[in-house]
Design a protein that fits this description.
- This protein is α/β, with parallel strands linked by helices.
- The chain has a single domain (about 10-275), classed as Purple Acid Phosphatase, chain A, domain 2.
- About 25% of the residues lie in helices and about 20% in strands.
- Strands 8-9-10-11 form a 4-stranded mixed beta sheet. A 3-stranded parallel beta sheet has the order 5-6-7, with no helix packed on it.
- A hairpin with a 2-residue loop joins strand 8 (about 180-185) and strand 9 (about 185-190).
- Helix 1 (about 80-90) runs parallel beside helix 2.
- It is globular.
Amino acid sequence: MHQYFSIIVQPIRLDEVHWTHRAHLGSLRANTQYQYKIFSMDYEKRTWLYLKNEFFWVGDSKTETLHIGLISDNQAGVRAFMSILHSLVNLPASYPSQYLTRSSAKVFPHYLIHVGDAVQSYDSLEEWQTEFADPLSYAWSSGQGNSPPTILYAHGNHDQDINNRYIYTTGERQGKNWFSTTLGAAHFVVLDSQPLAQAETQLDWLRRETHMEAWVQASFRIAIVHIAPFIEYWDPRAWEELGEKYWGKYVRAKLVPILMDSGVDLIVSGHQHIYSRGWMSNEV
């Protein structure tokens, strides 16, 4: 067990009663169990323990089997979201034992990748709490007795926050909603399919990123982007009046060529809600 101390950066006030805080833990060791504690302090500088939890960090370890859960577009679908989370939490019970590792017993999966649109209304604190945070917390606390896995989040079309007011998934990046990380033998780039005024800035970043050693040397190169290169027609008004038929063009014409030229192995997208358009006999 390793311990890091972090100085909390300046709190950011969202509204009259809500604040966000951000802490940097520095370089984490691969294949290591970490415990973190959050303390609260009153005006008289008296402190008390607010929360204590643990997480397992696989990092760039090449020896650990990496388990990743993928989910997207759960907005306004709490029942389906809870069902999917319940299946993820309980998956180890039916998993072949040779694929379960030391860290799998502590938290499963190791990471969650969310491909955008966690809520319908991005500026609704109530939706973030009741339709995203609460289901995640309940699923893992009741199923495994711990906190949810680390989440890599890609912005969707419902996640546009032009004024950078709500920073649940962006931190202080001021609209630059893309980043990269290495997990196990895979290197991930998480991209914004609708970066608005930051479109060229993201392309410049991606060109540099795909020449970095972490990308070039990775065994697997994976891109996460909400809107797919080609999207399906589903609603006349959204398609014509809201211009959804053009939404895939930036991804298809700008992002994909860079990724393909640099040897991407997998592009993961969401947006289509295809999972909600049918019901198979095996409840999938």
